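Q: Could you fold this chain for me?
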Amino acid sequence: MALTCVEICAGAGGQALGLSLAGFEHIALVEYEQEYCATLKRNRPNWNVVCSDVRDFFGLPYRNRVDLLAGGVPCPPFSAAGKQLGADDERDLFPEALRLIDEIKPRAVMLENVRGFLDHKFDEYRQMILGQIKAAGYTVHIQLLNASDYGVPQLRPRVVIVGIRHDVKGNFVYPTPHLGKPITVGKSIGDLMKANGWELADSWIAQANAIAPTIVGGSKRHGGPDLGPVRARRAWAGLGVDGLGIANEAPQKGFVGMPRLTSRMLARIQGFPDEWDFGTKKTAACRMIGNAFPPPVAQAVGEKIKEVLEHGVVVSHRA
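A: Sure. Below is the predicted structure, expressed as structure tokens.
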């Protein structure tokens, strides 16, 4: 029997897909943006997508019915690419996550955010967040995970907070990084780069012999279909990729120069399966992909949470 999950700030489904592959069945996915909701419904018609502001979502109907409450609360309040306003940023939804933990009382909690959440300037706020989860009755773990350690060809560090309810008797440990060198960008998307018969594809694959820098999604106001600021584009150029834009298709025969990636290539670098449909709007697709939590990382963490929930002995629970 599958374990149940409620997910908030579900985005385009990266974390949800990974948790689903780990064995969790979503009984509700809460997402605010219409395009993201449409993507979730298009790819998984059986998912119960609640297209609503999480501030308007109430957890009491799910109380004692949920094994895992998960979510990737918005990262701009803590991202080095923004103003790092933390709790003073209106997009900070950690308070809503804390509210839902209290209302739902899930057996486990999984929340992810950017590396900036660990910055010294957020020490007090971070300890407050972790302290409130502990006070709600959970043993709390926090660790920085690198996506490239779990089969994703990308430098994408993410903070993952896991809480295990006290009456679940089991020891949670974060997933062990994969052995060996991570897959390179060239090997990851080489077949896609060859799709239109580009004669220089093999040479490009040999040059793209490292992992990618962090893919960025940007915001509605500033997120265009490109690969990020100047520093990021320089890193992409070292892999033989033109980061000034996103291509509609792979290079054609006779193409000379640095190719641009397609949104499908970006999605694979982010860890999505090729069949995951982000729609036809390139800018929107890039935002969804760049803001996603890599499914393989979510799956790896989810499997460890599942081990605890399935093998830990539940001794008691008070509503």
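A (continued): DSSP finds ten helices and nine strands in the chain.
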